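User: tokens in, sequence out, please.
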């Protein structure tokens, strides 16, 4: 900013002097000299920027064993990394090489760790950068930095005698937001374009193969051009850890700490609902600090308890539910799951009350074989499952909550589809000729029937819902088999 003001003032003075008839040529010469010096320093700054030696590319020591939980993410990632490990096969079979993997999920869940472990697993050098490093006021600097990063990756791999490099870009949404939506859009667009150019230019027969891994917690902001085949081909979701994963993470971060034999990590995992891996690491660290302050030789359970409070109060977690709310979520999800098993036996594959993305809980249903057509009974079953959550809340807790708004939207949409597809009591209809009142009434009729059925079914299986909710409060995540056992 200061530079802009100085340049502006200098120019102003020159013009003023010129108007007054002063000879400004010597001054102009001086200014040109200054500009040259400034640009010289500037380009060297572009080249090395503010990067430390560590980010210039090196081997990593983190392995997948050092990451607790995240089994799905790890498996998906390892599967994708086969592409990097078997370049000959890829080429022989004519498979399009994998160029980019996008890791999405809340902060502190281990995305950076996964990228480092991937570098270790594939014997690649690791370079990291953050999306914000590429955002500069000067046009072209961001693009230049992207070029530089890829150049550095190749150099670093050669220096280490390796044939592959992983470039990790954190907060990619900052530089790869949808194009044309920023104020200084030109600069952003150039940077993103440069990234796409670099990725398009990567080949399997390069002497250094590069894999770009990017992380974001706002996948919705990413420019779709980045997700096209041949760019970020894979997206791996990295969620907040559930109870078992939290225990695994706690075990990892207490490996090197003296624990009192009475410390119950399982209990701590239970009490840290909604914590990310980074929060859990802080809990372990804070507990150790508290023990040190008391000059205790071992870390005790109460140190952990105090540490949890400290981490909780220190930074408000996105979503920390109190026990009553958590029980409501458990009851709600149990309602979905029990109805799911009753109307579509064998369909529930897992149920959880650990928050995923925007949802407080989730029932995963085994995907049907690609359904193109849906029958009336299938549609009715889907509506019943959607209404099961709020019905369970009514049954066990006496009243509903706002948590069901999404379910209702979904149920409404299915019912509307039924009406327009000629599957309602109206018979075949023409959508345009249908008055909104009639449409509304017919949808309500369908939903009311479904509601009645769901209420009846749940009342019959009240005990199963209750037991399932209680089991969820203990374990957070349960497999579908458990639901089936309770319903049976
Ligand atoms: P992200 O990149 O998703 O924001 P990081 O990978 O930078 O998160 O994690 C920050 C720190 O939190 C790590 O250095 C580690 O100490 C801890 N951590 C996060 N997730 C895990 C995990 N799954 N297992 C072990 N430690 C974790």
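Assistant: Sequence out:
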């Amino acid at each position: 900013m200061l530079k802009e003001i100085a340049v502006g003032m200098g120019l102003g003075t020159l013009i003023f002097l010129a108007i007054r008839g002063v000879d400004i040529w010597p001054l102009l010469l001086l200014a040109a000299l200054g500009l040259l010096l400034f640009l010289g320093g500037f380009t060297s700054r572009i080249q090395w920027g503010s990067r430390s030696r560590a980010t210039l590319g090196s081997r990593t020591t983190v392995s997948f064993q050092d990451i607790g939980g995240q089994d799905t993410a790890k498996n998906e990632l390892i599967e994708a990394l086969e592409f990097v490990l078997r370049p000959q096969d890829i080429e022989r079979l004519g498979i399009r090489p994998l160029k980019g993997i996008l890791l999405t999920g809340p902060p502190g869940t281990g995305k950076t760790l996964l990228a480092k472990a991937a570098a270790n697993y594939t014997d690649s050098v690791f370079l990291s950068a953050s999306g914000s490093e590429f955002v500069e006021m000067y046009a072209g600097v961001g693009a230049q930095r992207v070029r530089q990063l890829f150049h550095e990756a190749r150099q670093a791999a050669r220096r280490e005698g390796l044939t592959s490099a992983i470039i990790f870009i954190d907060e990619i949404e900052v530089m790869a937001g949808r194009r044309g939506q920023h104020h200084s859009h030109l600069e952003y667009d150039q940077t993103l374009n440069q990234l796409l150019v670099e990725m398009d230019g990567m080949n399997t027969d390069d002497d250094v193969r590069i894999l770009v891994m990017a992380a974001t917690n706002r996948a919705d902001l990413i420019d779709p051009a980045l997700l096209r085949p041949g760019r970020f081909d894979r997206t791996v979701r990295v969620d907040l850890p559930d109870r078992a994963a939290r225990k695994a993470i706690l075990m990892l971060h207490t490996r090197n700490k003296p624990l009192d034999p009475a410390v119950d990590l399982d209990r701590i995992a239970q009490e840290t609902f909604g914590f990310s891996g980074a929060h859990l690491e802080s809990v372990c660290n804070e507990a150790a600090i508290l023990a040190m302050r008391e000059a205790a030789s071992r870390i005790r359970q109460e140190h952990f308890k105090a540490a949890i409070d400290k981490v909780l109060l220190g930074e408000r977690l996105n979503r920390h539910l109190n026990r009553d709310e958590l029980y409501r979520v458990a009851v709600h999800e149990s309602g979905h799951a029990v109805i799911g098993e009753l109307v579509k036996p064998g369909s529930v594959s897992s149920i959880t009350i650990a928050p995923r993305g925007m949802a407080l809980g989730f029932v995963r249903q085994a995907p049907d074989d690609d359904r193109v057509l849906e029958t009336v009974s299938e549609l009715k079953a889907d509506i019943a499952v959607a209404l099961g959550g709020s019905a369970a809340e009514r049954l066990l807790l006496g009243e509903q909550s706002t948590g069901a708004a999404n379910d209702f939207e979904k149920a409404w949409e299915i019912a509307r589809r039924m009406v327009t597809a000629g599957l309602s009591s109206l018979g075949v209809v023409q959508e345009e000729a249908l008055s909104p009142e009639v449409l509304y009434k017919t949808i309500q009729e369908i939903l009311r029937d479904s509601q009645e059925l769901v209420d009846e079914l749940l009342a019959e299986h009240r005990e199963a819902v209750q037991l399932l909710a209680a089991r969820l409060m203990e374990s957070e995540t349960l497999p579908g088999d458990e639901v089936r056992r309770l319903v049976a």
